Amino acid sequence: MLINRVELREIRLPLVHFFETSFGRTTERRIVLVRVHDGEGGEGWGECTAGEGPFYCEEWTESAWHTLKTYLAPMVLGHEIDGASGIFPLMKAVRGNRMAKAALETACWDLEAKRAGVPLWKHLGGVQSEIACGVSIGIQDTIEQLLEKIELELNAGYQRIKIKIKPGWDINVLEKVRARFPEIRLMGDANSAYSLADAPLFRAMDEFDLMMIEQPLAFDDMLDHAVLQKQVKTPICLDESIRTPADAGHAIDLKACRIINVKLGRVGGHSEAQRVERICRERNIAAWCGGMLESGIGRAHNIAMATLKGFTLPGDVSASSRYWEEDIIDPPVTITPNGTIIAPDAPGLGFEVNRQRIERLTVRQEVVE
After folding, report:
1. 149 is known as an active-site residue
2. Is residue 348 situated within a structural domain?
3. Catalytic site residue 101?
4. How much is the average pLDDT of 259-271?
5. Catalytic residue among 101, 122, 164, 166
6. What pLDDT digit, counting tens, does each position of 168-181 carry?
7. For residue 186, what are the domain limits?
8. What is the pTM of this model?
């Protein structure tokens, strides 16, 4: 593989409903798309999952754009490599910036799978042709609105409900949700909103029979999570703390969690995600695919990753219609009545990129060659 052209686009995509976490409320996504070309007519697409501001992590739309244009794309261009797995090492000189790296790296995996004439999920070594799906529901204006949304998603067939929590929107909310839906698979996601001083609160949450509490403490912490996990029965799931395969191994050694959320952007792309998945599988730690309000391109990459053997819990990969009036892929991602997604059969991502819609949504474009 030799990449001779990298095209960057920023699109603006309004959400059908605001999405609120402990970081704040999002109504529109600024998404950086990456298209790579091999000079022989082949192309691949990737998506940067960084947010509009540096709140989930240090990366954000502007930093990713500049890093891709100025540093990462030139590092990849013109190097003949054996395959897409060789892309991440080419960018080693740049520290961090894993979401920007993942956008470029995943595009190369899409290109390689198309050249091989196979679906990306099979090319990655996926074994699950059908993946179980859950939903992530943001903080609502009222608890009644939250209960209505949960009812709607359960009726659609989703197998797991994740609700965002933050101080003041936590145990009272979980109590009402569990009273209304006593049997559902339920979890809470704190997005680093608490400290170890809140341990009594999390011990009180044990009574709600949650699947897990996701990232309750600091985004860069493992030690306090290990202390908290000893004090609570509910499994802790780490998200923001796991940026590398080494992080996953350290967290498991420290007993800082019993579950790991894997996000392509956070760990740096498919090659790194495969390494994290293998560590989890070999250490008997459950893994699942997290979401970052992706468009259809990022969503398709998530589907491919979630077919790996180690992904044993329903992830955040849900239907396009939950987020967008019209997605940028055809057909849009849909779920079955059983709350699953069927992995596509077409080569590469398995979905057609709607270039006309992307063109209409583009607010800036840059070509590096």
Report:
1. no
2. no
3. no
4. 98
5. 164
6. 999 999 999 999 99
7. 122-342
8. 0.96
